[in-house]
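Ops channel
N.P.: pipeline sanity check, posting one input/output pair.
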């Protein structure tokens, strides 16, 4: 006897992709994201009521009022005097001085990237009686908030209808990290003491454990990057709705067994700064970035193949590697010949040799694919190509998967970490579950700069300028997630610039090129 699902979101299948028909299987055909937009108001009512050809301008004062109301609800449920997000600051990677100024990512020669594991709703929800699932849970579903049973008031802190807005606030907060913080800014706008000015600080964002992509798409994405998913053209890009994006769900996410949608990886980029390259046709040579019918974006599950070297790992590990996903997107800087290949991923979870072996396979495959794409672009005429890898690796800095990415070899670029992995104060997750407390560094921003000789004396390089520093441990009063932070992972971010430098002697011996 087939059990009927409970409360499904209109227009979405179990993999979190838009579809035209809903069944109770895992492999439903995906169709246009427009289905979702037609069934739910895309802007959550954040319009100012004006009438024009685009249906009215976005009023982000209303968005900030929403964030303030969530803040107030959280405050009412705890004895904590302050439920503001933990303070963050932008830190120079050149002279190690803290910039006590408003961060600005609008310069023509720089851009910011971020990676954020948002903590999937399906991996942190409570009992079905309190939080009804859209599908019938499996027999292993226990509704214990994903093991976060020691969180204070989990029924409040892990209520996704509140928590998702705090996740938005984390993204907004990066811009105001050195200007009093997002909480103070929201308060001033709501009370009329500050001019409305809302924008996200990040030009490229990789999000992991996304099992409600409809929310992020509706709030942030103006236009889908894939030709098969044409987004609504009636919305003018403005405010924070200035992104293109893609989403790739896991094929067998544990969220599905718990009655929720599959979690996966999303990659978003600011469409005024970057455009996705399209594959060149036979008669055009270089690929173009705008409105092409054939995308160059690669996304899917890892295959666990020994595509780059012989790795002595059991076949069962190779099969298990296929449940994690990646996105590879070649993004052209608007108005330049610079291309950044951005990889977004979330590798296999849990400890142990077998799981680290799987992560090693996945990291090796991702590195190989990114370098293979760079070589292909070079062959097509793109000479100024960089690589940035963003993701939750579930491995610590000295583990094999991370070391493989950083390892220099003749067939790939030299990758570096944006954060100092030797810094003992660095951490990206600090949480307490039923099996104990964990404080680790497992989220990373890796980058590689390809240098292009623009004349006989000058070259262009990708330069890391700043990082978003993690909260000092002594300032953390409660672990993650909690009233002061909505995920079990910290958002990490870096600012990069394009710099012209004099060529060094024996330049080709010191830098790898394709």
């Amino acid at each position: 006897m087939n059990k009927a699902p409970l409360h499904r979101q209109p227009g979405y299948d179990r993999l979190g992709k838009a579809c035209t028909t809903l069944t109770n299987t895992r492999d439903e055909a995906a169709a246009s994201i427009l289905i979702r937009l037609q069934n739910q108001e895309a802007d959550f009512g954040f319009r100012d009521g004006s009438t024009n050809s685009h249906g009215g301008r976005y009023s982000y004062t209303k968005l900030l009022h929403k964030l303030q109301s969530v803040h107030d609800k959280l405050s009412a449920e705890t004895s904590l005097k302050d439920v503001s997000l933990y303070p963050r600051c932008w830190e120079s990677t050149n002279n190690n001085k803290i910039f006590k100024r408003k961060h600005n990512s609008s310069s023509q020669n720089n851009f910011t990237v971020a990676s954020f594991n948002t903590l999937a709703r399906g991996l942190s929800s409570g009992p079905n009686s309190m939080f009804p699932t859209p599908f019938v849970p499996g027999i292993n579903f226990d509704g214990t908030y994903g093991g976060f049973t020691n969180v204070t008031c989990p029924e409040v802190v892990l209520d996704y209808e509140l928590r998702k807005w705090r996740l938005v606030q984390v993204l907004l907060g990066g811009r105001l990290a050195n200007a009093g913080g997002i909480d103070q800014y929201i308060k001033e706008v709501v009370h009329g003491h500050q001019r409305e000015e809302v924008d996200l600080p990040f030009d490229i964002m990789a999000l992991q454990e996304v099992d409600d992509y409809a929310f992020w798409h509706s709030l942030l994405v103006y236009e889908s990057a894939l030709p098969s998913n044409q987004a609504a053209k009636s919305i003018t890009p403005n405010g924070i709705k200035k992104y293109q994006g893609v989403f790739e769900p896991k094929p067998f996410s544990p969220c599905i067994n718990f009655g929720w949608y599959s979690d996966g990886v999303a990659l978003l980029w600011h469409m005024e700064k970057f455009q996705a390259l399209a594959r060149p046709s036979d008669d055009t040579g270089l690929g173009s970035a705008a409105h092409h019918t054939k995308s160059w974006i690669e996304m899917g599950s890892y295959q666990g193949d020994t595509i780059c070297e012989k790795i002595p790992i059991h076949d069962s590990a190779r099969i298990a590697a296929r449940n994690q996903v990646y996105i590879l997107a070649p993004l052209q800087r608007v108005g330049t010949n610079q291309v950044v290949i951005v990889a977004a991923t979330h590798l296999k979870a849990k400890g142990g040799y077998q799981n680290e072996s799987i992560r090693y396979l996945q990291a090796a495959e991702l590195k190989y694919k990114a370098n293979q794409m760079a070589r292909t672009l070079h062959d097509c005429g793109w000479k100024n190509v960089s690589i940035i890898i963003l993701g939750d690796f579930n491995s610590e800095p000295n583990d094999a998967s991370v070391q493989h990415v950083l390892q220099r070899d003749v067939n790939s670029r030299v990758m570096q970490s944006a954060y100092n992995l030797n810094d003992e104060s660095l951490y990206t997750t600090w949480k307490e579950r039923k099996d104990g407390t964990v404080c680790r560094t497992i989220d990373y921003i890796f980058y590689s700069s390809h240098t292009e000789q623009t004349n006989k004396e000058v070259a262009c390089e990708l330069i890391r300028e700043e990082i978003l520093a993690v909260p000092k441990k002594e300032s953390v009063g409660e672990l993650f997630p909690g009233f002061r932070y909505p995920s079990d992972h910290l958002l990490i971010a870096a600012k990069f610039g394009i710099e012209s430098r004099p060529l060094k002697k024996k330049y080709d011996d010191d830098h790898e090129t394709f």
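N.P.: looks fine end to end. Residues 138 and 458 are 61 Å apart (CA to CA).
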